[in-house]
Amino acid sequence: MTQIELDDTGRELLDQLFDKWSLLVLDALCDRPRRFNELRQHLPAVTPKSLTACLRRLERNGVVERVILSTEPVAIEYRISLLGRTLQAPLQTLLRWVGDQLGTVEASRSRYDQRRAGG
């Protein structure tokens, strides 16, 4: 496998795409556009503050679009952008890998923790 070298900007982008919530938000938006509260219901563990920050980062990076549907009352929807759509296949592959390998990872963690604890 060829190693790809990233500059600071590339590493920053990876940090923002692989933070605590971004992959799950992108996965939810790949299904369909959603309003803020729909995203919160889909990801109940995320706080409003964290979701807002995540959506802003994703919008700034061009992978999510914020669309104003109406102004009275204000209605905003978040959609995956064309650029964000290019992440769909690798994102699905990564999430599938996590689902498939979680048991193996948990067993590895348990063995590691036991060794570290001296047991």
Summary of the model, kept short:
This protein has 119 residues and is of the alpha+beta class.
Written account of the structure:
This protein is α+β, with helices and mostly antiparallel strands and 119 residues long. The chain has helices spanning 8-17, 22-31, 36-42, 48-60, 82-85, 88-116; strands at 34-35, 64-71, 74-80. It is globular.
Produce the secondary structure layout.
Layout: H1 8-17, H2 22-31, E1 34-35, H3 36-42, H4 48-60, E2 64-71, E3 74-80, H5 82-85, H6 88-116
Antiparallel strand pairs: 1-3, 2-3
SS summary, helix count: 6
Q: Rg from C-alpha positions?
A: 18 Å
End-to-end Cα distance, whole Å, is 37 Å
Q: Return the string of H and E elements.
A: HHEHHEEHH
Mean pLDDT: 94
| Uncertain stretches of 5 or more adjacent residues | none
Backbone shape: globular
Q: What about the largest sheet?
A: 3 strands, antiparallel
Count of distinct strands: 3
Strand arrangement across the biggest beta sheet: 1-3-2
